[in-house]
Structures are given as C-alpha cells and as structure tokens.
Specification:
The complex is a heterodimer of chains A (about 500) and B (about 200).
Chain A: H1 6-14, E1 15-18, E2 24-27, E3 30-33, H2 39-48, E4 58-61, H3 80-96, E5 99-101, H4 111-117, E6 126-129, E7 143-146, H5 149-158, E8 160-163, E9 167-174, H6 183-194, E10 202-207, H7 209-212, H8 216-224, E11 233-236, H9 240-246, H10 255-268, E12 278-283, E13 290-292, E14 300-302, H11 316-329, E15 344-348, H12 349-352, H13 355-365, E16 375-379, H14 383-391, H15 394-401, E17 404-405, E18 426-429, E19 445-448, H16 451-460, H17 480-487
Chain B: E1 15-18, E2 20-23, H1 30-33, H2 47-50, H3 67-70, E3 76-79, H4 91-99, E4 103-106, H5 111-120, E5 124-126, H6 129-141, E6 147-150, E7 155-158, E8 161-164, H7 169-176, H8 182-187, H9 190-198
Parallel strand pairs in B: 2-3, 3-4, 4-5
Antiparallel strand pairs in B: 1-6, 6-7, 7-8
The chains are: A alpha/beta (about 500), B alpha/beta (about 200).
The complex binds iron/sulfur cluster.
Iron/sulfur cluster binds near residues 110, 350 and 431 of chain A.
Amino acid sequence: MSEGTLYDKVWDKHKVTELPNGQDQLFIGLHLVHEVTSPQAFAMLRERDIEVAYPERTFATTDHIVPTQEEKRKRPLEDEKSEEMLDALTTNTGDNGITFFDFESGKQGITHVVAPELGLSQPGMTVACGDSHTATHGAFGSIGVGVGTSQIRDILATGCIAAEKQQVRRINVEGSLGEGVFAKDIILKIIQELGVDGGVGHVYEYGGPAIEELDMEGRLAICNMSIEGGARAGYINPDQTTYDYLEGREYVPEGEAFEELKSYWGSVASDEDAVYDDEVTIDVDDIDPLVTWGINPGQVVEISQPVPSPDDFDARTDREAAEQALEHMDIEAGQSMLGYDVDVAFLGTCTNGRVTDFARAAEILEGNTVDDDVRALAVPGSETVRAECEARGIDETFIEAGFQWRRAGCSMCLAMNEDSLEGDEVCASSSNRNFIGRQGSKEGRTVLMSPVMVAAAAVEGEVTDVRRFYDDDPADALTADDVSEVAD
Amino acid sequence: MPAVDPEADDNHITEVGGTGVPIPGDDIDTDQILPARFMKEVTFDNMAEYLFYDARRDDDDELNDHPLNRFEGANIAVVNTNFGCGSSREHAPQALMRWGIDGMIGESYAEIFADNCKSLGIPAATTDHETVTEIQQWIEDNPDGNIDIDVEDETVTYGDTTVDVDIDDAMQEALVEGIWDTTALMYSNMSKVEQTVADLPYADD
Ligand code: SF4
C-alpha cells in the first residue's frame, strides 16, 4: 500500500467517508462538463428532483461536436443533433447556475485545454469529467479521473464520486531529450515499454529529470495519455514550473491568497520517503521520435525501429493484435514507418492542441509547403489558444504552408463533427488514439506522433524524421534505408 | 432510467440469467461497441440500435453474421480480455443493457467500463481464457441454452456445468446489497461532505 505520495495525501483530504459497499466517497473539487456525456445525467437529476450541489465548482464547455469551420459556427448549428446537444448544455448549465464557456465567451475549447489555461485545474485538487482524458489535469499534481454518465449524476447531485483507491506506480524518467524529440515521444515510449494495459489498477506518478525539465504543456501531454497506458490517472508533483504557470491565470487568486494556496500545493507533493506500490525506470536519453504502426497506442516504435512481427510478442493476445494491425494498416513486419504515405495531417486535441505545440510545428512549416496530396488541419485546443497563436502570427505560418486554420474543438480526434477521415486515408495525427474507426472511417488509418512530426509528415506527404528540418545537424535524421539496415 | 430507491427489494441483484451471446475478441474498445457518431443524442433511448453498429454490418450496410445479429434476445454477453477499453462513454454499457444484456462474463474489462456496469446494475464476472472460450463455444452449440450468473456465490452455470468465477468485491457487495445506486448512498452523507469541503484550502468560497 502506498504511503506519503501525492495521491495518498490528496485522496485523504477529499475522502468524505467509507461507503457500505466498501468504496470511498470522494469529494470532487473541480467538475468539468461537456455536451456529450452530461445531458443524460442532468435528466436523471431532474427525474429525482435533485439540485446541483456545487454549481460553483462545476464548469462547462463544448468541444466534441462543435464545427471548427468559422462559417459553420452560427447557431442554430446546421447539424440538428449537434444543435440539440449544445442547446441542452446551454439550458442545463443556465438552469443550474453553472459557468458555461460557450462560443461567445471566447474561451470555448476542449475541457482539458480550457481548465488548465484558465487556472481552474490546480495542485492538490480532485478533478472529474465525463471523459477519459481527465488524467490530463494530473500535470498540476491533482487527481484527475474520467467518469461515466452515472457518476456525472453522482457528482452533480452530491459533489462526490464513489471510488476505490488504486495502487501507485512511480515512473522515473531518466535522461534528456535530443532536438526534435518532445513530451509526446516520452509518453509513447512509456506506453511502448509498459503496454496499453500496464497501468491497470494503478495511477502513474511521473518523475525524474526528464519530467522535471518539461514545461507545463509537455507535462499535460504526458498525463493526458496515462489512460492509453491503462492507468486511471497520472500525475506529476507540483514544483516551481507549476507555480509559475499558474500565477496570474484567471481563476487563480492573487497576492496573499496565492501564497497561502502555494503552501498547500507544496504540502501535497509526494514525500522524499514516500512508499510506492511499484517503481519503474524508463530511460529516454537520446530516444528517436516515436510513431504508432498499429491500431492501439502501444503498437508504437521509435522511427529507428522496424515494424515488429507478430512473432516478436510473447502473449497470444499481443500476437493476434499485431496481426490485425498489420492487416489494417497494410504494412509488413520489418518495414520502416519512415516513408509511410500520409493523406491527412491533423494537429490539435487535448494531447497536443496547445500554444507551444503550434509554435513548434510552425518552426518546421516556416518556409515549407504542405505536400499537394495532403489535407492538413490545424485545430487549436481552445479559442484562447487560437487567439494567442493569432496574436503571435503562428496562424499565418500555418496558412502560408497550406494548412487549414480552424476554430477550437476535438475535431478529427474522434470525428463527431464534420472533420473526418474518408475511406482508407492515412492520418498523421497529434491525437492520442489510433483505434479502428476512431477518426470517422472504419477503414481509416491513424499514425500517432508529436506535433512537429505531424508538420514534417504534412510537408513530405509521408512519415518523416522531423530532425531533418532542424538545420544544426540534418545528418541526425533517419530514412527508411537506415531502418531496414537495422532490421536486416 | 427510472429513479432507484435503495430500499426497494428489486435493487438486489443476486442472480442474472438467460441465453448467451459470445462477443469474441481482445481489446474491444468503446469506439467499436458504440461508434462516436451515434453519441449525438441527449438520451440513451436509442442506443441499442447503434450497438456494434459497424461490426454488425458489411460494406453494403446489410446485417452480417455478427453474433449480436445471430443471438438476438440474449441476456448474457461472453467476452475476452480488456473489454470496453478506450473512451469512458457510458453509452457503451447503456447500449448493451438496452439491447438486452443483464450480465457479462469475460476474461477482463477496462476499469471505467466495469464501473459503468456496476452503476447500471450489470454484474461483470471474470474467469480465465479457457473457461471463457468454452462458454463461447457452448453458446454457439446451444443458442437456446440457459446461462446463469450467481452473483452471491460467484458461479456461472451453463447447461449442466457450473464453474467458479470472480466478481469484484465492491461490485458484488453493491449488487447483492442493492446499494449500486451511489447517488442515493452518497446523498445521505451531505453534512459530512460539507465538512470535507470546509477543510479544503482551495474551496473556501
Ligand atoms: S480531443 Fe480527443 S481525446 Fe481529447 S477530449 Fe476531445 S475527443 Fe477526447
């Protein structure tokens, strides 16, 4: 049993009582709501004639279904069902006194982008949302949990969820990253090593030099994909980077109140002598950028590695999954992912839809053009991100290179709006899931990678080592020939 | 969903049963169970229609021989490992429930999926690969045969065979005691909630 970790401390602070079913009743300090998973929960509340217990701790935004094309964002929305959902959210939040970051607010966007940038997500909090990527908020040293609609009902009605404590696994990330390699590559490396179900029953505490060096946006990308590693939550202990990021944000108090909060934040960090249920070390020193080759996020390689063969896996289930992946992706074992043809480039999402993601991708696009055969979409994670990118002229670089510059939303991450793959298109995507059908076409193929790798793929029309775009040392960049040599 | 009264007798779920449907495959994610494009509805009412929508149809949109097409009316779904992984959407278990599923037998489930099942009063039993495969085959051979999950004893009976299965302690307790309606349970502790909130340094508003 873990002891003295941030997870233990935050859990204890929020534990209301133990329930007769053996679970803990846990208070949720920040409840984030969006249009897809909440209407049924609000309806259940109405049926029971219960009011929202903590409307002031509840914030809503709309992300999954929103059109990202400027001209399509007029109400009523063209798509009737989307309009109905948006309308339900407007009514539900209005009736219950919940703040809703709608189109007019200028702050609309993906829940996991909006809450961090407004300073709503803070260290030592419990954060819940009807969305599996709520783990994202753990980047601040909070416990972020994704919940289902019945649990949304629970939170609306009582401010609490019923939950069991998980085991805590400390992941020490050692080494330092080379040029062109970023946080997304770290988390893909972790999932490659620990597997897509490695985290089941656990929360991940990420630490070590490679994590401490990351800015908040990198940390958000790491915690975001905890769920892809099978963990229910993931977090990073708060430090000066965290405090500096939070200071001055809209929902963060100022002056003395800030100092007081800061001492609370510091107090929840894991103790030096904290006890973990499990500890692993992952070395990311000089890793190459990673890309997925299959149909789950664990089917991933450094671009120097060839696509594995089903025989390389011990477990029957992994072998079968690999066979299915090779067939779906239409690739051969032993092949390099470099040179894999790309039809669509998609940059955005709650993993990589933040300002630095676009800024870094813009460095690659500067002076380059998107390949003629590539449809390229840049979708800011929030309207705040969009505004800042536009203020810095980043949008211009994208547009000049041939990207479509869109308004904020989830977009092609799961294609609940009109942004979708068609047929068996291949998408170089900065998102977090490459499941079959995820991007809107059941033949569609997704290759997950970092934002700069998406930019490089957009320019070349194929999976490319982004390091060839950094002028210092283009010789560092790999090509498919290097990989087959390794494979032989 | 009707309001659930934790005092009412019919909240106690000690046994579920009926005919079975095998849904073979590992890592079946919620995007397959309920494709995202069908989530654009403000109620769960129509979800049964969308269950495994793509997998149940061939390219020209005709129903294929997917087990859910062949075993219409079944009550117990028998699945393999990591069923329900991916997105947390409750639409997935809601769709299974509304299609007619009252209980699940599988090698393993994604955690959020299992939690969602519990909230809906659907027992999700686990057992090893061999047993699951055997039951799946037995259903193929006995489409009208009865399968029972005894939640209290943690057993599954199909035909003349009874095997031991595992049901997570919290799930078992919640179902058997009829306390799976967590809203009602927690609602009775609101004064304690207020105390907890009062002690939180960030929530003094
Ligand atoms: S961006 Fe993708 S993963 Fe993130 S909340 Fe939206 S749909 Fe989910």
